[in-house]
Design goal:
With 221 residues, the chain is mainly alpha-helical. It folds into 2 domains: 87 residues, DNA polymerase, domain 1, CATH 1.10.150; 128 residues, Rossmann fold. It contains 10 helices and 7 strands.
């Protein structure tokens, strides 16, 4: 799924209302800086766990705004942003998702979510009509550990009753999904919707490619 409208449009609107008008280019740079800082901290529990999410997102938003004008995001702006992104109507499901999940389920695959996300992901998936398609959800804020560490992959495997060597992980982050899953002993496919990693051998640009992928044939036979 993806934010609809896009994150930068929502942030730009709320920052402007909060007294920080910003150009799309500057906001893009500030968001990129903030996420790189988060990743560089290598915190396996990056969202602060269920009890620490508010503090994480406040720090993240203040890092973004601090990069832009040296200020801090007001509580009112924080509350509006939190409410927006916790609403399923603020997200859209890619058109290839439901048909691919259903096709894989018909072929006997057990499906699971392994995600670096805050604790509201299960409610979002429920609101979007997706949650019942998965046997388990391993969400970093709830698990208090995340990708690319091995623990969250291994927990999902244990809950679905398969060994890591029997599992395939599909995700759109080269480091967290593709490399993290492989390091944990799973097979991995990189979902590269925008063609950013042409040199990765196990790469798809659309989820529907999974149903015809050679990597699935031994498991489905």
């Amino acid at each position: 799924m993806h934010p609809d409208p896009p994150v930068e449009e929502v942030y730009g609107r709320e920052l402007a209302e909060d007294g920080c008008p910003v150009s799309p280019g500057d906001l893009h740079q500030a968001l990129s800086f903030a996420w790189e800082a988060v990743r560089s901290e290598a915190d396996p529990n990056r969202y602060g766990g269920v009890r620490g999410e508010g503090a994480f997102w406040r720090a993240f938003l203040n890092r973004v705004r601090g990069r832009l004008d040296g200020g801090r995001v007001s509580e009112a702006a924080f509350d509006r942003l939190a409410l927006h992104f916790r609403n399923p109507s603020s997200w859209a499901v890619y058109p290839d998702v439901v048909s691919t999940l259903d096709a894989l389920a018909l072929r006997g695959f057990t499906l699971a979510v392994v995600s670096n996300w805050d604790s509201h992901l299960p409610r979002l998936l429920e609101g979007l009509g997706l949650v019942d398609r998965f046997a388990t959800l391993a969400v970093s804020a709830i698990e208090e550990t995340g990708k690319p560490g091995s623990a969250i992959f291994h927990r999902a495997c244990a809950r679905t009753g398969v060994a890591p060597s029997e599992a395939l992980h599909v995700g759109d982050s080269l480091a967290e999904d593709y490399e993290g899953a492989r390091a944990a002993g799973l097979a991995a496919v990189l979902l590269d919707r925008h063609g950013l990693h042409p040199s990765v051998p196990d790469r798809i640009q659309n989820l529907s490619e999974l149903t015809s992928s050679a990597i699935l044939r031994p498991a489905a036979s």
